[in-house]
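Example record

One chain of 278 residues, shown exactly as stored in the release files.
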Amino acid sequence: YRKIRNTCRFILGNIYDFDPGTETIAYQNLSELDKWALLRLHKLINRVSKAYEDYEFHVVFHSVHNFCTVDLSNIYFDILKDRLYCSHPQDPERKAAQTVLYELINALVVMLTPILAYTSEEIYSHLRKENDPESVQLLDWPQYKEDYIDEAIEKRMSKILEVREAVTKALEEARSKKVIGHSLGASVCIYANEEWFNLLSTVNNLDKIFIVSHAELREERQRSQNAVSLEELPGIWVEVAPANGEKCERCWIIEPSAEEEHGHPGLCNRCSEVVAKL
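Predicted structure tokens for this chain:
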């Protein structure tokens, strides 16, 4: 229960400045990660709807709990935090994330109503607009959208998340050896065979997905002796080193630009530009 409630609290806390009427980003303009989150949501809607029809309430609870714990908290929210907290409030990528969060919470609040009635009413009280129904009990059931089910995206993201898991294990090993502290203190180099290299070279912002300060992708033939591999993920080697530069006081990313002299001491170039526009 607490995980589901905290998931909803996180979403509500990050859509406080989002106007769905004017700031919604079209599906085709969303990132692959955002589309993946919507894909997982609509698979959940399909599974939960059938479970309610079959009176399998345990399936409802376990499906929603697993979605909140794994798909959202451990993956989507974890990667999203930098975009939500550190981007300019009107950044299109931040608004894209809020678009997805808004759809997530509006679907979850209805699906939870039959089993968590009071909590759902509390959540809905923060979502309800002036002309909306008075109670969450009066809302329409979320509709399953076949257009969001893109198997190619799901397959790509599954592969990328496998690499993310390998990187996470390498970071934990480096942390245990006192090479790094927090993951943002790390610079990661991924050595990949041809198949993995062709996939990962098309992925933007690997550093954000791995939650490190710097991420680099290299071919297998350039592999360092310090790179470690995982038996369950052949073709991938990970090397972890301390990131170069100073810690940005705003986003906590270690960047050489945080050492430079500009209008906002202690901030990286990105944060300095954002603060200047506020």
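Notes: The chain has two domains: 2-148, 154-244.
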